[in-house]
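pasting for ref
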Amino acid sequence: MLPGLMQDRPLAIIDILRFAATAHATQEVVSKNVDEPIWRSDYAGTMRRVAQAANMLAGLGLNSGDRISSLAWNTHRHFELFYAAPGMGLVLHTANPRLPDDHLVYTINHAASRVLLIDRNMVEIVERIKDQLTTVEKIVTLTDSARTPAGYEGYEDLIAAQPDSFAWPSFDENTAAFLCYTSGTTGDPKGVLYSHRAVVLHGFAAGLSGALGFSAFDVVMPCQSLYHATAWGLPFAGAINGVKFVFPCDKFDGASLQALIEGEGVTFSGGVPTIWTMYLDHLERTGGKPGTLQRVIIGGSAVPRDMAVAFDRLGVVVQQIWGMTETCPLGVVATSTPALAARGRDAENEQIWTRQGRMMFGIEMEIFDDEGQPLPHDGEASGALCVRGPWVLERYFRSDTSAVDADGWFDTGDISTIDELGFMRITDRKKDVIKSGGEWVSSIDLENAAAGCPGVKVAAVAGVYHPKWEERPIMLIEAHDGAELSEADVRAYLESRVPKWWMPDRIFFEPVPMTATGKIDKKIIRDRHADALKEG
């Protein structure tokens, strides 16, 4: 084999920000913070603060390969840690504050983090759990001097005296950079250890025209949490393309998002469906318009068709995405192709709104039957969705067992179809699919149908034991505030939209439980209503 004669420079996350600070030095970085005035800086200023943060972390005696944990929202300080920690060879574990205390403690201890950096309104959580954190030596609050809680040291005080340059080390691109944990709905959370190589390649691909399609004219407001799989890679894909960033902190209600969209000229945002349900409800109640907002990506669970239609009427393009913590996280993005566009706008919209998306460069995707044989890409055959690629998990953190098969395929746990244009559609999770009398009921399709019923805020479907049919679907409906909605209303709406035998046996009107990452927690639903149909 003849080696190439090109320079061998490792892919490094800090080089993304170093590029942005040079090529887009004056592009703004704007941030809300906990009980603080709005923050304004630019990439050049952010680069200097990142160097100060790295000097501060080095002064705490941290060494290459050490883990630190953040317990923080979408702010400029958290964004700075995304570059400072991996840039100096540390691993940043982005802890999820919405996890139950025992799972949160487990992830920080499992990561063996030496330092914990927290937002001011995380103090209550930390006071509850700090005695259980076996490896944490120091806790720093991500606050300014005036708002540092008593008994804690503040980030701004600690970096203020530090130099604004840092001798960034060079190391192998396969060095670990981020440690992200799954939500742990079926046991203890599992750690996924991202490498510099994976993050940088993912950042390149995510910004391509066939994916998120970023440019320096975009103003990006990440409403997916920075602690959730690095906010779907936006901090890196955005910086590579020189976007203006607007960080909303923890304010994801409709009014707060609308204020930032109008005030900062936001063109692009992303988040789970529940955030956009609140946003659209706010616009409807206030008569507001989305203004500069052009595109929204939605992931975490399937996009209700009525949500996509509502955005379309407002002139906002909705793109579904699919990914998981184990895929760093993007796997597919719903973008059009000439072949799809040739079918007409209605067909194009239908495809984009009802499919999770088509594969992006770097991800291979296949569906397999129960015998491990690949299935046809005809949009009809459904099977186990498997993926492989340079930003797909090989094994979990602290595990000695590979998570992929002999051919490198990682089983995502999803059941899906792939059509002739390469679009993937998830029909269910393996653990959530409902088998009723030998026939399959798609809980996702049933939820999407119910979500369009007037007055429905969230619909959730799960399968529970039935003495005759093995399993039957039940449905939880969480209505909008003030909505008058009955079981008869929901059934009448579903009657012409789903097969008769899909109709849920019981409909409950109650809050829908959510996981720490904003997905419907069907384990809780199944446990709560396990005996709902036992009498048949």
